[in-house]
Design brief:
Shape of chain A: globular
Strand content of chain A: over 45%
Number of helices of chain B: 0
Oligomer: heterodimer
Largest interface: A-B, 27 and 26 residues
Distance between the termini of chain A: 36 Å
Radius of gyration of chain B: 14 Å
Largest sheet of chain B: 7 strands, mixed
């Protein structure tokens, strides 16, 4: 069974930069997994930030960027703001129509 | 504007069935793959199923395979999720989400638009 790993929690200072990662329990994440990133605040539906590794969804500010760092997908937030405090989920495409989400990272801005 | 609206959630006993719907508007529904994603209380997102633009291809997470059926009616701009043999662990908010445009030039394999979700509670 494929397990997608994310940091359970992270904190960043207002105005700071943070990089969240998305890995595989076995193996490396590459662009072939088409990693995507989603932001969710409590009680709200998810919002798409990034798809296909580094393409920002419509309306997403360029403070959010996606990449591959080493053997993981990464979401970098620069100039963190208070309303960036959310849960962040990555999702990987496994092929044969299947997708899997990571467990999510709870980001605190303080 | 582009919109997805889920309905059909409720409280159901274990072993029973429920059908969710997702009504689409503001875009050419028949051109897009559509996903179901769920979130159990206090837990993360879980991908459930996806259906191709024309309904010819359907894929499921192992946790629901053989119990859930995804379908669509492009004449009604509506997606469905038939959930049979429901279990307590199926209790979740269920979201529909738009995937790739079949006629687009690039595949991204993710989701770009989400509904607000409908709540399913499986309990005796």
């Amino acid at each position: 069974q494929t397990v997608v790993t994310q940091e359970p929690s992270f904190s960043v200072s207002p105005g700071g930069t943070v990089t969240l990662t998305c890995g595989l329990s076995s193996g490396s994440v590459s662009t072939s997994y088409y990693p995507s990133w989603y932001q969710q605040t409590p009680g709200q539906a998810p919002r798409t930030l990034i798809y296909s590794t580094n393409t920002r969804s419509s309306g997403v500010p360029d403070r959010f960027s996606g990449s591959i760092l080493g053997n993981k997908a990464a979401l970098t937030i620069t100039g963190a703001q208070a309303d960036d405090e959310s849960d962040y989920y990555c999702m990987l495409y496994l092929g044969s129509g299947l997708r899997v989400f990571g467990g999510g990272t709870k980001l605190t801005v303080l | 504007q582009v919109q997805l609206v889920e309905s059909g959630g409720g409280v159901v006993q274990p072993g029973r069935s429920l059908r969710l719907s997702c009504a689409a508007s503001g875009f050419t529904f028949s051109s897009y793959t559509i996903h179901w994603v769920r979130q159990a209380p206090g837990k993360g997102l879980e991908w459930v199923a996806v259906i191709s633009y024309d309904g010819s291809n359907k894929y499921y997470a192992d946790s629901v395979k053989g119990r859930f059926t995804i379908s669509r009616d492009n004449s009604k701009n509506t997606l469905y999720l038939q959930m049979d043999s429901l279990r307590a662990e199926d209790t979740a908010v269920y979201y529909c989400a738009r995937g790739d445009d079949y006629y687009g030039s690039v595949r991204h394999y993710g989701m770009d638009v989400w509904g607000q979700g409908t709540t399913v509670t499986v309990s005796s």
